[in-house]
Design brief:
The complex is a heterodimer. By secondary structure, chain A is mainly α. Chain A folds into 2 domains: 223 residues, no CATH class; 69 residues. Chain A is 81% helix and 0% strand. The radius of gyration of chain A is 25 Å and the shape is globular. Chain B has 4 helices and no strands. Chain B is extended, with a radius of gyration of 21 Å. Classes of the chains: A mainly alpha, B mainly alpha. The interface between A and B is large, with 85 and 64 residues.
Chain lengths: 295, 112
């Protein structure tokens, strides 16, 4: 089957990049050795973190290749050189944002339209960052890159996957983010360069990302003690599917869901405050009665 | 030449706009303590957003025309069931994807 060919090419790329990153690890290893750490151990650990990050991202690899190829094909079909597919995937790195950009390019939109449409479509990312403030504090110098590379899929992996024991959080996160980024670039360049020459039947393959989200949602279900966020999501999601166009529904549903969460929190706090006041009243009452009696 | 320049400027603009949406919360709450309400929301956002991403994946399904979204819902059911049972992420994801590809490529639900 055709896509196996692409898959194999990708594996070669991945191995290539793994060598490169391991080579970086070796330099760091030397520094560590200077600090008195065991040489071999540090290198082994880097490799282990990389391998577990790679395993975590395999579903994204299988999802980003066909999606990236679809984007590359689309841009190629609109008459643009493959280098632009590469540049966009490298510097923009936003799946749906790039598809939208192709549509706007074809329509001959002006710069303002690009800015407004991109801000609106990608504003959901701001909510992703909100829930990562704590996780990203203390990741050091990779933080700007992690923020830049925060796609839906990387967000899903970072919020749900546990950092393997005794490994550095920043390095594990960085590998996940960089690998996903790399798959996306590889997919879009492949699509733009050879996509039109291949006759592949990848129909349905991007369902791998749906399956990934389903699995990660269930993991969140196992890990969280409250069930309310899931109810909020079902309500907000169903409502947004009905009320909003497919392009707008994700941002709309995230805003709606967040409002539901805030509303619930406010009302819970209200109930809690009332309870506390009642308790205070109840404990003050006997004392007051006593004072009255005594006087 | 001007076309190339225009394309590069457009890409730069889209890249900056996208990055702005991603860095915004870190700019707002980078130095000062986020409000108390936010820390409660912060914990509840990931489970909610992940389920919303699942819903989002179904955004283009035609519910009122054959096959009425049945391939998608059926496969999601299989993935979820398998994951609750075995809790093996790779097994659930790849079984589901292979099943879905077979369902849509061989038009299994075309009798509907």
């Amino acid at each position: 089957m055709g896509w196996q060919k692409i898959y194999r090419i990708n594996i070669i790329y991945v191995f290539h990049s793994s060598k490169r990153i391991t080579a970086q690890g070796v330099t760091e290893e030397k520094n560590m050795a200077r600090n008195g750490m065991d040489n071999r151990e540090a290198g082994e650990q880097t490799k282990e973190i990389f391998i577990s990050a790679f395993k975590t991202t395999i579903p994204v690899l299988l999802g980003y290749i066909p999606l990236g190829m679809a984007f590359g094909l689309l841009l190629d079909g609109a008459g643009y050189h493959w280098i632009y597919a590469f540049l966009m995937s490298l510097f923009v790195y936003a799946g749906s944002g790039q598809f939208l950009a192709v549509a706007l390019l074809v329509a001959g939109a002006g710069i303002t339209e690009f800015v407004v449409a991109t801000l609106l479509l990608n504003f959901r990312h701001a909510f992703y960052g909100l829930s990562l403030l704590e996780k990203f504090s203390g990741v050091g110098k990779v933080k700007p890159y992690l923020i830049f590379a925060l796609t839906d899929e990387t967000y899903a992996l970072l919020t749900t996957t546990e950092v393997p024991q005794s490994s550095s959080k920043s390095r594990f996160y960085f590998y996940i983010a960089a690998l996903d980024h790399f798959y996306w670039i590889a997919g879009s360049v492949l699509g733009a360069v050879i996509g039109s020459m291949l006759d592949l039947n990848l129909e349905g393959m991007s369902f791998v990302l749906t399956a990934l989200f389903v699995v990660l949602t269930i993991e969140q279900y196992f890990n969280s003690e409250t069930r309310f966020p899931f109810l909020a999501a079902l309500g907000a999601g169903a409502l947004s599917l009905i009320l909003f166009s497919p392009d707008n529904m994700l941002l709309a549903s995230i805003i709606l869901g967040t409002l539901i969460l805030i509303g619930r929190e406010k009302s819970m706090q209200g109930i809690h405050t009332k309870k506390v006041i009642r308790q205070i009243n109840a404990s003050v009452q006997p004392v007051e009665d006593k004072i009255k009696k005594e006087s | 030449m001007t076309d190339t320049l225009q394309m590069l400027v457009t890409i730069a603009v889209i890249a900056l706009a996208t990055f702005a949406t991603r860095i915004l919360p870190f700019m707002c709450f980078g130095s000062r303590e986020p409000p108390a309400m936010l820390s409660v929301i912060e914990k509840n956002l990931p489970p909610m957003i992940l389920l919303l991403l699942v819903v989002y994946c179904l955004k283009d399904v035609q519910w009122l025309a054959a096959p009425y979204g049945i391939p998608e819902l059926f496969t999601i059911g299989i993935v979820a069931g398998l994951h609750f049972w075995k809790r093996n992420a790779m097994l659930s994801i790849f079984t589901g994807t292979a099943l879905y590809m077979a369902l849509v490529q061989f038009h299994v639900f075309s009798f509907l």
